[in-house]
Design a protein that fits this description.
BirA Bifunctional Protein, domain 2, Rossmann fold, 9-stranded mixed beta sheet, YbaK protein, RNA-binding, alpha+beta, 558 residues
Length: 558
RNA sequence: CGGGGCGUAGCGCAGUUUGGCUAGCGCACCUGCCUUGGGAGCAGGGGGUCGGAGGUUCAAAUCCUCUCGCCCCGACCA
């Protein structure tokens, strides 16, 4: 392609109102434009990247026997009503009525429709297994679109669905997808890890997420470098870092106006890990007192699995129920249900004395209070791995893919049944597997950029090589540029020729910004001597080569 | 949905506190000259319902009311 005829609107100045590096660079380099909050136009360069990513997705999906299909984006409400998600999902689903007032929605995922099709077409164990996938637009009325193309209201997704006659078959398909996903993300040049995840609204028992480390990410994962344990902090288990055992007699300490762990910790010159933090929450069945160590945070989701939906108690409620103002609550002597984090079983602690402006030192579990024991703290860096005891790392990540073992969550309500060898009717056992191509692109930029712009991994770059004829008024330069363009294109390389009447500096800046992996630079003096330069975008290293060797060198490094 | 911020030329911004002449600057864009190894220079030029509606006033980008949009934090999130 010729630069002069392509729409590549690069920006010299950084657009304001952009936070994520990938967002800024995609705008500046002319890959995308924003139509409205969470709605993006992919310009020619951006779409080329998406096309290459999708090609990799198709190759790897086809390689595990998945079959591509195309599904409607507009869905009738009934199918979603049958699985119950029409009611459970809420405002995140775009809903509308057709001209006959029939309820419809825009697809935010395709479990329902895929399962509907399976129910209609799959009858016998002989029809199984099947794996179907699509690379299509999903729509979600996100409460808060953000970070450019990382979280949008309309986005492309590769989603596949497996249909099996047995749990064993499901596990096999799940494993195949996990392997395919490893190949896909590696081919796309990403650093990533597969972590245990919370199935959330998808339902099902087992699920994993594929996470690419980046400060622009929305999730955090806990990772153990020594045994490989890896989990989303939404569910990650960890052991509290051990502190030196202290022996105190049980005694009250005057702590005037010192309410938070931090305040009392400073006042008593004692590390927060020696404190016991008491948090009162309100549930449908009444108040619950949650206890975590002073240096830990209460994990809302873990607690929710034990006590159900809850909210923090208001200050007046704390006073009414526990008889003491917030800040001086302790675990002793209350009639409310108490859930304590496992890390408090051992050790001696300081907590509120249930008496204004006093704390109690020397509290022991079992002797001074009793509780139901659970893991209700949030894993944090330096906590210990539950499997091997090594220190954990916590990393911010972009979710680029996920895999779920759905089981019969969708096949049952949609009556996707098959007859087994014995003529028994059984629900089809399903899995679902998603990848966000735009997130791959964004993560690739997040992980591969420098002060000058994007550094595309070769596999997903919009072009393989860019030719920069520096002086378009020099006939020899122009002629050589055209010749190289033709020869490289003939070998199957995707070539961008910057044939604009621009000064050298502009072409260098734009080339670095756009981030095509290899640049062929044609300066007037070098051209006269039959020399061209090949520059590696990543290393910035430049080598001079004879004009006749350019194509060979580029092909070899590609 | 809660909290905060911002809407002035394609982009980046000043002007708004304290109302007052024809609404400005840089970049980009157009024409000409010149230049061609890291976003050149000179000269000339085009482009604005100051997000929108209503109000106050002799006079509104500026003050008041309402409204729309975008960004950030939080809640939410297959």
């Amino acid at each position: 392609m010729r630069f002069s005829t392509m729409l590549i609107p690069t920006l010299r100045e950084t657009p304001s109102e952009t936070e994520a590096v990938s967002h800024r660079l995609m705008l500046r380099a002319g890959f995308v434009r924003q139509l409205a909050a969470g709605l993006y136009i992919f310009l020619p360069l951006g779409w080329r990247v998406m096309t290459r990513i999708n090609a990799i997705l198709r190759e790897e999906m086809n390689a595990i026997g998945a079959q591509e299909v195309s599904m409607p984006v507009l869905h009738p409400a009934e199918v979603w009503q049958q699985t119950g998600r029409w009611d459970t999902i809420g405002e995140e689903m775009f809903r509308l009525k057709d001209r006959t007032e029939r309820d419809m929605c825009l697809g935010m995922t395709h479990e329902e429709i895929m399962t509907w099709l399976a129910a209609k077409e799959l009858r016998s164990y002989r029809d199984l297994p099947q794996v179907w996938y699509q690379i299509q637009t999903k729509l979600r009325d996100e409460a808060r679109p953000k970070s450019g193309i990382l979280r949008t209201r309309e986005f492309l997704m590769k989603d596949s669905y497996s249909f099996d006659a047995s749990e064993e078959g499901l596990r096999k398909n799940y494993e195949r997808h996990a392997e395919a996903y490893h190949r896909i993300f590696a081919r796309c040049g990403l650093t990533f890890s597969m972590v245990e995840s919370d199935p959330g609204m998808m339902g099902g028992a087992v699920s994993h997420e594929f996470m690419a480390p980046s400060p622009a990410g929305e999730d955090e994962v806990a990772l153990c470098d020594s045994c490989g344990y890896a989990a989303n902090v939404e569910l990650a288990a960890s052991l509290a870092e051990k502190n030196e055992l202290r022996e105190w007699p049980l005694e009250e300490v005057h702590t005037p106006e010192k309410r938070t762990v931090q305040e009392v910790s400073n006042f008593l010159k004692l590390h927060p890990s020696y404190f016991l933090k008491s948090i009162l929450v309100m549930t449908d069945k009444g108040p619950v007192l949650a206890l975590v160590r002073g240096d830990q945070e209460l994990h809302e989701k873990k607690l929710m699995k034990i006590v159900g939906a809850h909210r923090p108690a208001q200050k007046t409620e704390v006073k009414d129920i526990l008889g003491v103002e917030a800040g001086f609550i302790g675990p002793m002597g209350h009639k409310v249900r108490i859930i304590a984090d496992d890390s408090l079983k051992e050790g001696v602690y300081v907590s509120g004395a249930n008496k204004p402006h006093y704390h109690l030192r020397g509290i022991r579990a079992g002797r001074d209070f009793s509780a139901e024991w659970h893991d209700i703290h949030t894993a944090k860096a330096a906590d210990l791995c539950v499997k091997c005891g090594s220190a954990l790392r916590v990393e911010r990540v972009i979710e680029i893919g996920n895999i779920f073992q759905l089981g019969i969550k969708y096949s049952n309500p949609l009556r996707a049944y098959f007859l087994d060898e014995n003529g028994q009717e059984k629900p089809i056992i399903m899995g679902s597997y998603g990848i966000g191509p735009a997130r791959i692109a964004a993560a690739a930029i997040e992980q591969n950029n420098d002060k000058d712009g994007i550094i595309w991994p070769k596999s997903i770059a919009p072009f393989d090589v860019e030719i920069l004829p520096l002086n378009m008024n020099d006939p020899a330069t122009v002629e050589l540029a055209s010749a190289l363009y033709a020869r490289m294109s003939a070998t199957g390389l995707e070539v961008l020729l910057d044939d604009r009447e621009e000064r050298a500096g502009v072409k260098f800046k734009d080339a670095d910004l756009i981030g095509i992996p290899a640049q062929v630079i044609l300066g007037e003096k070098n051209v006269k001597e039959g020399i061209a330069e090949i520059k590696d975008r990543r290393t910035k290293e430049t080598v001079k080569v004879k004009v006749d060797e350019v194509v060979e060198r580029i092909s070899a490094s590609h």
